Amino acid sequence: MINVEEFKGVTRILGVTKKELDLDKTFNCGQSFRWKKQGNYYTGIIGDKVIKLAEHTFSDGEVGYATTLSAEECRAILLNYLSLNIDYNEYINIESLDDFAKKAAVFGQGIRILKQDPWEALITFLISQRNNIPKITSTVERLCVALGNDINGEGYSFPTPEKVIQAGIDGLQNLGLGYRDQYILNAAKWVYERRIDLHKLESFKISGEEAVTELMQLYGVGPKVANCVALFGLGKYDMFPIDIWIQRIIDQYYDGNIDISKYGCMAGLVQQYMFYYIKHIE
DNA sequence: GACCAGGTGTCCG
DNA sequence: CGGACACCTGGT
Questions:
Q1: Tens of pLDDT along A176-201?
Q2: Sign, Cα dihedral of A238, A63, A40, A73
């Protein structure tokens, strides 16, 4: 049950059904590693705000949320973070998808592509390479505790490029980053020195492909990481990151070759459906 | 205590 | 270009 002492009651702040937004699925399809579930509520950090969220489904099917923030603030933050202004159904017709994608999409209904801070996405996915999810989560947490700001004792913000530079390679080395520490320090320098402008890449004038090409100039950023940053940090929803799991799907269900263009401008959403599906079957 | 993980850089043909 | 190989380190 929702703890009414701590939360401000359940409100219909987002006006969504579980098919449009499912927190469990959205936070467990591997796009973010900073949401923790404790009991029936999630705690996450967006920018410098700690947000606690608990779902409650009303009898009419709409989902309400109990939160620690004011309803207005929570709504403003989440509308953007979950891009709830976008109706996925306008861009993807589940019925018209190929067999495997359709199964994945039906199974994954309620996943939202998160609009994360691009810098945070960059570092998170640099850390994710050749790592498993529990370790990615704990490593990102260590990084935030060490170099982020304490937010009212409730959590830590994601460290700025400046903080990472200040820490230097020595400061990064005891955080369990492994060989990725130099990638991260280098990325911090490039962002700080404006050799790369991540926010400029968010512009709708920059295509996903262009953003990926730009991101891959960074040391340690290959196609997989670049696609993840473009999709989850820059709002390039047509990007389709291919990791080992997606590659397995392509080999097993698409004869080793997939035509992503058929998924159109929301290919990244299909990718998330597939990733979530493959990790939850068998 | 091995063994391996949501990849990428480097080297070599 | 494409394939082989090394790479830090904590979780299971």
A1: 999 999 999 999 999 999 999 999 99
A2: positive
Tokens of A242: 């291919």
Q: Whole-angstrom Cα distance, residue A168 to residue A188?
A: 10
pTM attached to this predicted model: 0.97
Q: Which of A42, A64, A52 is nearest to A7 (CA)?
A: A52
Average pLDDT over every residue of A44-65:
94
Dihedral sign (CA A200, A203, A207, A209):
positive
The residue written with tokens 């933050």 in the block is A77
Spatial neighbors of A60 by CB under 8 A, at least 6 apart, are: none
A239 burial class (0-12, 13-18, 19+ CB within 10 angstroms)?
A: buried
Residue A61 CB in 7 A reach of strand B: no
Residues forming beta bridges with residue A52, ordered by sequence position:
A43
3-state secondary structure of A55: strand
Radius of gyration from C-alpha coordinates of chain A: 19
Whether A226 CB is under 7 Å from strand B: yes
Q: CA–C1' span, A131 to B7, in Å?
A: 9
**Using the CB atom, is residue A235 less than 7 Å from strand B?**
no
Measured distance CA(A195)–CA(A21) in Å, rounded: 37
